[in-house]
Specification:
- This protein is an alpha/beta fold.
- Helices cover 61% and strands 10% of the residues.
- It has 20 helices and six strands.
- Strands 2-3-1-4-5-6 form a six-stranded mixed sheet, with helices on both faces.
- A hairpin with a 2-residue loop joins β2 and β3.
- α10 runs parallel beside α12 and α16 packs parallel to α18.
- Bound molecules: guanosine-5'-triphosphate (GTP) and magnesium ion.
- One of its GO terms (cellular component) is SNARE complex.
- One of its GO terms (molecular function) is syntaxin binding.
- InterPro entries: NSF_attach, P-loop_NTPase, Rab4, Small_GTP-bd, Small_GTPase, TPR-like_helical_dom_sf.
- It is a peripheral membrane protein.
Length: 477
């Protein structure tokens, strides 16, 4: 079990949350990308023997949590570390800006002589890069750090990063600059390592148990749902089997959560949530729970998708536009947090659509205008701006003509080609008819347009409201 080695170095992997520290460690030890990495709780541990300048060096690596709330825990592991990988994410400037603080911590808590290698991770995401190689190498030079860009995903430079850092330590030892007895090969570190290894084994065992229980509960939930209801249950509360199934799904969710099977946990909680919604009972607890887990684990995309599917349930199976809107809004926020802009837009457009239907025109207008403006920034999406301006224009007409006119002028300034669009022309014609209180002309214009491109239910509702406002309230114009 015990491999032979010449040196044992304690290593730290530090840096902001989500920069890929755990993935780097996993890639280094397992030579694989960790697909489903979630935020590290406290610290994790790994070790590997690497050949360095003809010597066998055992690296005992402490992967620390980047989240602020674990700072006090992770700092207690810094002592005695010989080397550190200081990680930032090349696609996130904030993680680069935080480097100075991490470095100061490492030097003051581990040792002023700690050998630090700066790692710009996620180099595979070139198109999303926010930090250039040049400015990072400048930072490294100014702070006497070595520097590499890596990809924990492709594996590029990962082994090199650890080896390069280890090599620099060996060189320092051999030149007499470092005393090997005074760096992270002390018995305290060995003690830490043994405890961590024991803890990991224990966790693996209990996690496997929890996962098995989770699967059993899912099977139980399914069996409960398939049981025929019968006439009696109709009288004595037919929904009880649904409630039992919901409970099973929730318990399964908890088991999966303990097993760190986040995907399964989320699915189980969502099953529970959608059953609740269908049974039209109070389901907030379950949905929020599912979403909380994902948010907590930093998996915003997951949280977003779940908000989105709950919103869809509220749109179709258990109609409640306000609830749907609020879930779409949250989904959009989370998608935006992950920079999934097209998904965020899809959700926020739903919010606008429902807001208009609920007569909150101001909100709808502001969303449509915003989405139109962002679409104009991209040559691919530019074309869709006219639809959003059209929708915003119609919402304006539900409120008043003057602002509608001013808005149209603004839209043309932003997007001159809008003037030639059928949508713009229709808005203009409608406004003319409104001014003349010509309800028949209004109807004709709508009909003409509709014969070419059919209006869906949303447009029909809004157009009818505008028409009604002309009939009911001629002074409006
Ligand atoms: N494209 C790409 N994604 C990566 C890379 N490394 C990590 N990721 C992704 O980045 C996210 C965060 O990775 P983690 O390794 O868990 O981040 P961490 O730094 O350990 O986060 P904390 O534990 O909170 O400190 C995950 O979704 C990974 O899939 C990489 O090199 N390329
Ligand atoms: Mg981690």
């Amino acid at each position: 079990m015990s491999e032979s080695y010449d040196y044992l170095f304690k290593f730290l992997v530090i840096g902001s949350a989500g920069t890929g520290k755990s993935c780097l460690l996993h890639q280094f030890i397992e030579s694989k990308f960790k697909e489903d990495s979630s935020h590290t709780i406290g610290v994790e541990f790994g070790s590997k023997v690497v050949p360095v300048s003809g010597k066998q060096v055992k690296l005992q690596i402490w992967d620390t949590a980047g989240q602020e709330r674990f700072k006090s825990v992770t700092r207690s592991y810094y002592r005695g570390a010989a080397g550190a990988l200081l990680v930032y994410d090349v696609t996130r400037r904030d993680s680069f800006n935080a480097l100075a603080n991490w470095l100061a911590d490492a030097r003051s808590l581990a040792s002023p002589n700690i050998v630090v290698l700066l790692v710009g991770n996620k180099s595979d995401l070139e198109s999303q890069r926010e930090v250039t190689f040049l400015e990072a190498s400048r930072f490294a030079q100014e702070n006497e750090l070595m520097f590499l860009e890596t990809s924990a995903k492709s594996g590029q430079n990962v082994v090199e990063a650890f080896s390069k850092c280890a090599k620099a330590i060996v060189t320092k030892i051999e030149s007499g600059e470092l005393d090997p007895d005074r760096i992270g090969s002390d018995s305290e570190a060995k003690g830490h390592a043994l405890i961590a290894e024991a803890r990991l084994n224990f966790e693996h065992q209990t996690m496997a148990d929890s996962e098995a229980k989770g699967h059993a509960l899912i099977a139980e939930a399914r069996a409960k749902l398939q049981k025929p209801s019968g006439l009696l249950s109709f009288f004595f509360g037919g929904s009880s089997k649904v409630e039992d199934a919901v409970e099973c799904y929730q318990r399964a969710g908890n088991m999966f959560k303990m097993a760190k099977k986040w995907n399964e946990a989320g699915k189980a909680f969502c099953e529970a949530a959608s059953l609740h919604a269908k049974a039209d009972s109070k389901h907030d607890a379950a949905t929020n729970y599912a979403i909380e887990i994902y948010t907590d684990m930093g998996r915003f995309t997951m949280a977003a998708r779940h908000h989105q599917s709950i919103a869809e349930i509220y749109e179709t199976e258990a109609p409640d536009l306000e609830a749907a809107t609020s879930h779409y809004e949250k989904a959009a926020d989370y998608f935006r947090g992950e920079e999934s802009n097209s998904s965020a837009n899809k959700c926020i457009l739903k919010v606008a659509q429902h807001a208009a239907q609920l007569a909150d025109y101001e909100k709808a207008i502001s969303i449509y205008e915003q989405v139109a403006a962002t679409s104009l920034e991209s040559s691919l999406l530019k074309y869709s701006a006219k639809e959003y301006f059209f929708r915003a224009g119609l919402c304006h007409l539900c409120v008043d003509m003057l602002n509608a006119q001013l808005a149209l002028d603004r839209y043309i300034q932003q997007y001159p080609a809008f003037q030639d669009a059928r949508e713009y022309k229709l808005l203009k014609v409608l406004m003319e008819h409104m001014e003349e209180q010509n309800v028949d002309g209004f109807t004709e214009a709508v009909k003409d347009y509709d014969s070419v491109s059919r209006f869906d239910q949303w447009y029909t509702t809004i157009l009818l409201r505008i028409k009604k406002s002309v009939q009911d309230n001629p002074d409006l114009c």
